[in-house]
Amino acid sequence: QYRCRSAFKLLEIDEKYGILRPGYSVLDCGASPGAWSQVAVRKVNAAGTDPECPRGTVVGVDLLHIAPLDGAHFLPCRDVTDPATHAELRGHLPGGRADVILSDMAPNACGLKELDHERLVTLCLSLLDLADQVLKPGGCMVCKCWDGALTSKLQQRLLSVFNNVKTVKPKASRKESSESYFLARHFKKT
Ligand code: SAM
Hints:
The chain has helices at residues 7-17, 35-44, 83-92, 113-134, 151-161; strands at 25-29, 57-61, 72-75, 98-103, 135-146, 162-168, 179-187. By secondary structure, the protein is an alpha/beta fold. It has one domain (7-187): Rossmann fold. It has a seven-stranded mixed β-sheet with strand order 3-2-1-4-5-7-6, with helices on both faces. Helix 4 runs parallel beside helix 5. The protein is globular and about 45 Å long. 39% of the residues are buried. The model has no long low-confidence stretch (mean pLDDT 95). S-adenosylmethionine binds at residues 3-4, 6-7, 30-36, 61-64, 79-81, 104-107, 123. GO terms for molecular function: rRNA (uridine-2'-O-)-methyltransferase activity. One of its GO terms (biological process) is mitochondrial large ribosomal subunit assembly. Its main location: mitochondrion. It is found in: Mitochondrion.
């Protein structure tokens, strides 16, 4: 039982692109209420459920409270754009590094489409600083975006640090929603 229907979007992305593997370290940004972390814990074997497979790590962070989840380590009441949070996150990842950064983050929508879009793009851009700190070379990132004037600028910025950037619109996203996800793979940091 997932905490939220959003789980099906990540399941769909993972089924198609195979981004979560046993033993991987995953950072889940905007993790509350925890459905993506539930998927990640299962896929990377973070609870050690499958003794035959390497055991991974899931660290989740959110401005809000997150109910505990076996196999995940949550940092609630944190702003992911705050450099102090970056340092703290590193401390919870093995070797201070993640294989995958997930972000289903969204600001509280004010209803003004362009303004909401700009605020979400700003959040996504801050993930590039985070990636610089924690993402392994070759690692990947998934981040939610709402369509708007800055979408292609964000895509360009992602392409400057990842070798491969795709736009993914999971079937589980409501048809009328302007939401899509960037899947950025092969982080170029050396
Ligand atoms: N993926 C989650 C799941 O499956 O349970 C749902 C995430 S929900 C759509 C978006 C979350 O992003 C909210 O809980 C919100 O508090 C969080 N968020 C927004 N801005 C944030 C920030 N600056 N730092 C951390 N979390 C943030």
